């Protein structure tokens, strides 16, 4: 028995379309499953938990949605040690990108999930909350706060508008970053604690991050001018920003950050700093190409 968890509004309705497709795919192969769709994220999490309580030996969970649904489902599947597959239906889909799957060849992903065994990968654990891709604080979190408060525009454009609103008044903040072997005390514009390689729909903030090495890649963007930021920002989509002298990347299994700032993980609000995170080896069973 599989759990098919669907966020129908993910990707402006893409979740409903792909959820229907996946259900048909499972039906055509006479595979037993139960659809889980909640009224909201809390309800969805509760429904999934009840399913796992009823089926502790279930084969796995297939989540159709974006990184937000991934983040929700991780909190239930990891403690239960249930394998998880994610069908990319959101606007970012960065966890699926990190795993190496195509965002369009869904049949290949489903075939692999249904015919092969999963493998173990690392996850981040921040103050008791699991995350798959990136934990961050700084300018991107300020943009997230602004975007979440906006009712218009919809979709990815909302974040572009939020960037335009926040950048002119944004100021670097002071951070205390405690790593395995040292503490960094610095002004910074952005800090990304990376289990995966990308966030924000393909921004390769830590292009060399490895989800199987037991370590975070921690990217610190030291203060630069607004003009320089605008020049450097597009390079993040190819990962070439890491050669800029203001970019520092270090590796650490544990990271604690203190500042007057907010943190997000997998695009979901974690809350005010201070925070403490650890890379947990082999925390999740999933499928890779």
Automatic annotation (TrEMBL):
Claim: Repressor is one of the keywords in the record: no
State its cofactor: Mg(2+)
Keywords, sorted A to Z: ATP-binding, Kinase, Lipid biosynthesis, Lipid metabolism, Magnesium, Metal-binding, Nucleotide-binding, Phospholipid biosynthesis, Phospholipid metabolism, Transferase
Could you tell me what this protein is called? Answer: Unannotated protein
Biological process according to GO: phospholipid biosynthetic process
Q: Output the Gene Ontology terms for molecular function.
A: ATP binding; ATP-dependent diacylglycerol kinase activity; metal ion binding
- Ranges where the DAGKc domain occurs: 1-130
Lineage at the top is:
unclassified sequences, metagenomes, ecological metagenomes
Keyword Lipid biosynthesis, does the record have it?
A: yes
GO CC, sorted alphabetically, is: plasma membrane
Query: Record's PROSITE patterns?
Result: DAGK (PS50146)
| Any Pfam family matching the protein | YegS_C
The source organism is freshwater metagenome
